[in-house]
TrEMBL record:
<dbReference type="InterPro" id="IPR004095">
    <property type="entry name" value="TGS"/>
</dbReference>
<dbReference type="Pfam" id="PF01926">
    <property type="entry name" value="MMR_HSR1"/>
</dbReference>
<keyword id="KW-0547">Nucleotide-binding</keyword>
<dbReference type="Pfam" id="PF02824">
    <property type="entry name" value="TGS"/>
</dbReference>
<protein>
    <recommendedName>
        <fullName>GTP-binding protein 128up</fullName>
    </recommendedName>
</protein>
<dbReference type="Pfam" id="PF16897">
    <property type="entry name" value="MMR_HSR1_Xtn"/>
</dbReference>
<feature type="domain" description="OBG-type G">
    <location>
        <begin position="64"/>
        <end position="289"/>
    </location>
</feature>
<feature type="domain" description="TGS">
    <location>
        <begin position="289"/>
        <end position="365"/>
    </location>
</feature>
<dbReference type="InterPro" id="IPR005225">
    <property type="entry name" value="Small_GTP-bd"/>
</dbReference>
<dbReference type="InterPro" id="IPR006074">
    <property type="entry name" value="GTP1-OBG_CS"/>
</dbReference>
<dbReference type="InterPro" id="IPR045001">
    <property type="entry name" value="DRG"/>
</dbReference>
<dbReference type="InterPro" id="IPR027417">
    <property type="entry name" value="P-loop_NTPase"/>
</dbReference>
<dbReference type="InterPro" id="IPR031662">
    <property type="entry name" value="GTP-binding_2"/>
</dbReference>
<dbReference type="InterPro" id="IPR012675">
    <property type="entry name" value="Beta-grasp_dom_sf"/>
</dbReference>
<dbReference type="InterPro" id="IPR006073">
    <property type="entry name" value="GTP-bd"/>
</dbReference>
<keyword id="KW-0342">GTP-binding</keyword>
<dbReference type="GO" id="GO:0005525">
    <property type="term" value="F:GTP binding"/>
</dbReference>
Length: 367
């Protein structure tokens, strides 16, 4: 393990002392690619699966999963206890929480699983302080709450983001708009739709050759960086929405609070006093992008208490049928839909109709 860490440290040192200009761009791209490969080896060591990690991961339940990530003693456990009513041990010393503590809340009819993860420290991506298991669980979440102490937010934010980025998590980002396809012959074919400031043909070739790829089509649809290209080649990056929770706002003045409110993706809260939880839950709902669909049995009123919850990217009638039961789509004849996704109330639709939030659906089966 130390050899991989030594190699990473050596490459980082070389990158730090290399001047950034057009002449060294190809060399820096090569070093970044090597660094990404070594990081991947750290995440998934060669040869056989690792141990199970003492029951670190928790079974996925509910419609979405939210993980609390942060340094020790920033109030993650207090937040979980006050939000979900689950007791997660709280004390005035660091590393009180040693494994994942799950909780569950119901919000707007959707069941949302909350995970209180142990605190991570600097060097977590290299395996310090159970950090790799913590970040591995964070990779499975649909949303991450980065819990920060309001008195030292920026230092912590940068450190934690660096740890998560090193583990292949990208916070509040879209996947790079780069087309990449390996082929059997024909060399490397690079197409640029806009002028590139960092990547040129030689840099792209040097990065691809590090991955032993000598034949590929690459199309850059925007001004991309070498990091974006490496992310696309690696293909194991996870793009997760993230909300920064600035905890302990009872320790600052109103003027400071007004400034904090202007920061994007930020919600100031006090976990201990339960301040601003409604704003937090509203923002959580907005970032999770969930869509609620109500069912209506024939001749009865719609069931508004327990909606079927879908993600906004998969909201066709077919996805709705599969969420109810896999056999329904096979016996499906048509569906009647009431709501904002149709012009007429009700309207007959097929399997490929896209549903909107709070639609009411009645499914008619083949006889």
């Amino acid at each position: 393990m130390s050899t991989i860490l030594d190699k990473i440290a050596a490459i980082e040192a070389e990158m730090a002392r290399t001047q950034k200009n057009k002449a060294t761009a190809g060399h820096l791209g090569l070093l970044k690619a090597r660094l990404a490969k070594l990081r991947r080896e750290l995440i998934t060591p060669k040869g056989g699966g690792g141990g199970t990690g003492e029951g670190f991961d928790v079974a996925k339940t509910g419609d979405a999963r939210v993980g609390f990530v942060g340094f020790p003693s920033v109030g993650k456990s207090t937040l979980l206890s006050n939000l979900a009513g689950v007791y997660s041990e709280v004390a005035a010393y660091e590393f009180t929480t040693l494994t994942t503590v799950p909780g569950c809340i119901k919000y707007k009819g959707a069941k949302i699983q909350l995970l209180d993860l142990p605190g991570i420290i600097e060097g977590a991506k290299d395996g310090k302080g159970r950090g790799r298991q913590v970040i591995a669980v964070a990779r499975t979440c649909s949303l991450i709450f980065l819990v920060l102490d309001v008195l030292k937010p920026l230092v912590h934010k940068k450190l934690i983001e660096h740890e998560l980025e090193g583990f292949g998590l990208r916070l509040n980002k879209q996947p790079p708009n780069i087309y990449f396809k390996k082929k059997d012959k024909g060399g490397i074919n690079l197409n640029c739709m806009v002028t590139q400031s960092e990547l040129d043909s030689d840099t792209v070739k040097s990065i691809l050759s590090e991955y032993k790829i000598h034949n590929a089509d690459v199309t850059l649809k925007y001004d991309a960086t070498s990091d974006d290209l490496i992310d696309v080649i690696e293909g194991n990056r996870i793009y997760v929405p993230c909300i920064y929770l600035l905890n302990k706002i009872d320790q600052i003045s109103i003027e400071e609070l007004d400034v904090i409110y202007k920061i994007p993706h930020c919600v100031p809260i006090s976990a201990h006093h339960r301040w601003n939880f409604d704003d937090l839950l509203e923002k959580m709902w907005e970032y999770l992008k969930l869509v609620r669909i109500y069912t209506k049995p024939k001749g009865q009123l719609p069931d508004y208490n327990s909606p079927i919850v879908l993600h906004s990217e998969h909201t066709s009638v077919e996805d709705f049928c599969n969420k109810l039961h896999r056999s329904i789509a096979k016996e499906f004849k048509y569906a009647l839909v009431w709501g904002s996704s149709v012009k007429h109330q009700p309207q007959k639709v097929g399997l490929d109709h896209i549903l909107a939030d709070e639609d009411v659906v009645q499914i008619v089966k083949k006889v």
